[in-house]
Amino acid sequence: MGKPNRKIAMVTGATSGIGQATAKVFAKNGYNLILTGRRNERLEAIKQKFSTKYGVQVVTLCFDIRQHNDVKYAWNMLEPEWQNVDVLVNNAGLAKGFDPIHEGDTDDWETMIDTNIKGLLYITRLVSPNMVKRKTGHIINLCSTAGHEVYPNGNVYSATKFAVDALTKSMRLDLYKHGIRVSQVSPGHVEETEFALVRFDWDETKASIYDDFVPLRAKDVADTIYYIASQPKHVNIQHILMMGTQQAGSNFIDRSGRKE
Ligand code: NDP
Ligand code: 8X3
């Protein structure tokens, strides 16, 4: 891949859902892309589609974000010009399981902590030094309503998103003096994603959680992320908390039917 001649957006977890929709909106707006995920076939298909349709350059990095050495290796394989990321969207993440604390699966807990907290940190640690060097850059973290309030059986997932909220705030304190913006988006339920399927181990019945109300769509969140990224340089939108109209909080959903 040659030298990029326009701005670069790096989106983690771009093989599905919010990450894929975010990659698309940045591509539509002329950004070159670095896209990450574990499913290489999907990454390659998205690369092919976006580079053809939008005329942008796309680099794919296939790794498990929990494996620090693999993340470092992939990053170090990038040509130096590609390491000058303008916008980093820390999106890769997941919920696994929906059990009360005394019945929780500790492997699920490890997966969520390693992905949502440690993975986000590994990426940020690699990408942010060049932002500091260049005195420019924008980091946008995917939090959740679950990062601000808890709900029954949400325990460890919520804890990881409370951690993301703390990291967004503390990253901003560390980086604002270097001209770097740090922002966060906290959506409620979002369909057109694999989130519920992953949480419930691909059990489609259990994952049918959007049948009786209209949640946000992946594109709604992607457009919000792009809105944050496209403000003038002196403006930092620190946080957007967003839900579908039929949701008023983690524990308040109007499930009386989909009001399209
Ligand atoms: P999806 O399951 O559709 O997408 C998750 C993405 O994260 C995939 O691209 C997946 O890629 C990637 N990912 C997961 N685990 C790993 C890993 N170990 N290594 C590398 N990549 C990984 O879910 P969403 O789009 O909904 O989720 C995106 C973010 O939004 C998450 O942080 C989630 O917590 C947050 N969120 C989601 C909400 C929702 O209701 N959907 C609401 C609020 C926040 P691959 O499998 O190819 O590795
Ligand atoms: C995803 C939204 O309510 O399932 O972060 O935790 S919720």
CATH homology superfamily name: NAD(P)-binding Rossmann-like Domain
Indicate the percent of residues in helices. Answer: 40-55%
Which CATH class? Alpha Beta
How do the strands of the widest beta sheet line up side by side?
3-2-1-4-5-6-9
Please state the overall shape, judged from the principal axes of the Cα atoms.
globular
- Tally of individual domains: 1
How do the helices and strands line up, and which of them pair or pack?
Elements: E1 8-11, H1 17-28, E2 32-37, H2 40-54, E3 58-62, H3 68-77, E4 87-90, H4 106-134, E5 137-142, H5 155-175, E6 180-187, E7 190-191, H6 195-199, E8 216-217, H7 218-229, E9 239-242, E10 247-249, E11 252-253
Parallel strand pairs: 1-2, 1-4, 2-3, 4-5, 5-6, 6-9, 7-8
Antiparallel strand pairs: 10-11
Helix pairs in contact: 1-2, 1-7, 3-4, 4-5
The structure holds NADPH dihydro-nicotinamide-adenine-dinucleotide phosphate and 2-hydroxyethylsulfonic acid (8X3).
